[in-house]
Design a protein that fits this description.
It catalyses: L-methionyl-tRNA(fMet) + (6R)-10-formyltetrahydrofolate = N-formyl-L-methionyl-tRNA(fMet) + (6S)-5,6,7,8-tetrahydrofolate + H(+). It contains nine helices and 17 strands. It is of the alpha/beta class. The strands form four sheets. It has a seven-stranded mixed beta sheet. Strands 12, 13, 14, 15, 16 and 17 form a six-stranded antiparallel beta sheet that branches. It has a two-stranded antiparallel ribbon with strand order 3-4. Strand 14 and strand 15 form a beta hairpin. Helix 1 runs parallel beside helix 6, helix 5 crosses helix 6 and helix 5 runs antiparallel to helix 7. The longest helix has 25 residues. The termini are far apart.
Length: 330
């Protein structure tokens, strides 16, 4: 089939590459306009644009798909279908009507769960042990169109949303190609979505990323992993924001720690939560790049009682309580 591909960020690149290697003909690529990036805020092309230009595929970068000029351009392409992966722009009804076989979206959840902008992130934040991918036909509603194919995906207990999304971007590419193959040979069977079990995956915000270290360890872990790498879960250290980007398995038995209290070993940095301690893997101090948490702890020279968040946790720390008080609370 003659295909239009619409996508913008890095997660869309594996799907474009798979389509370029498939029997389908990618006749043009639709992507967001160049955007400021990096410390100098220079305009940079999207990762999808970079790959398309390397492959010699014409690129369209309209701000919107509502204008008659861009709609006319899309009609002139004479495509049979459009493939969409994280395009980042609304496709209005006038554009949806152009390809006769429709717009096929690769979405990173098992619809109708997590409709919206951050499906993989919301699955991790919810503490799910598995999620999935869906290909479906775009319609006017937000991720409400009929489903064409699905694939289950397990979530590793220490996996971040970023690594999960990277993995699904690669594993979802063949699913998208197989779906387009099925559309081309007439074997695709769209199944309407049920509204039962539908959930929204709203975009993440920095305010939402603040850690509550008094919550049980599984909830703190899910918050850290679901917010990583962007916007990054955060707490405070000496009055400044400290991003906490990932956790890892404990390498030894951990001492009891109050919420926020830090304990450094030779190889790990542990932090207290509302239940058992967590081992932190990566941190990003204010104005600095991400680094190993254990390396930061060695450089910081942590004093006894050092903690993230509130300044004084001594009254909450089981190890700091009088022995008779500890006994009375068991």
């Amino acid at each position: 089939m003659r295909i239009l591909f619409a996508g913008t960020p890095e997660v869309a690149v594996p799907s474009l590459r798979a389509l370029l290697d498939s029997p389908h003909e990618v006749v043009a690529v639709l992507t967001r306009p160049d955007a400021p990036s990096g410390r100098g805020r220079a305009l940079r092309p999207s990762p999808v644009r970079v790959l398309a230009e390397e492959a010699g595929v014409p690129v369209l970068t309209p701000d919107s798909l509502r204008g008659e000029d861009v709609l006319s351009q899309l009609r002139d392409l004479d495509v049979e279908a459009a493939a969409v992966v994280a395009y980042g722009n609304l496709v209005p009804p006038a554009a949806l009507a152009i390809p006769p076989r429709g717009w096929v979206n690769l979405h990173f959840s098992l619809l109708p769960a997590w409709r919206g902008a951050a499906p993989a992130q919301r699955a991790v934040l919810a503490g799910q042990e598995s999620t999935g991918m869906t290909t479906f036909l775009l319609e006017k509603g937000m991720d409400t169109g009929p489903v064409l194919a699905t694939r289950d995906v397990a979530i590793d207990p220490f996996e971040t949303a970023g690594s999960l999304l990277d993995r699904m971007a690669v594993d979802g590419a063949p699913l998208l190609v197989e779906t387009l193959d099925a559309l081309a040979d007439g074997t695709a069977r769209p199944v309407p979505q049920s509204e039962e079990g539908a959930t929204r995956a709203a975009k993440l915000t920095p305010a939402e990323a603040e850690l509550d270290l008094s919550l049980p360890a599984p909830e703190v872990s899910a918050r850290i992993r679901g917010m990583s790498p962007h916007p990054g879960a955060w707490t405070t250290w000496e009055g400044e924001r400290m991003k906490v980007l990932s956790v890892e398995p404990l390498r030894a038995e951990a001492p009891p720690l109050a919420p926020g209290r830090l304990h450094a070993t030779r190889r790990q940095l542990l932090i207290g939560t509302g239940s058992e301690p967590l081992a932190l893997a990566q941190l990003a101090p204010a104005g600095r790049r991400a680094m190993r948490a254990a390396d930061w702890a060695r450089g910081a020279g942590l004093a006894e009682g050092a903690a993230f968040g509130a300044a004084d946790h001594s009254a909450d720390d089981p190890a700091e309580r009088p022995a008779d008080e500890q006994e009375s609370t068991r």
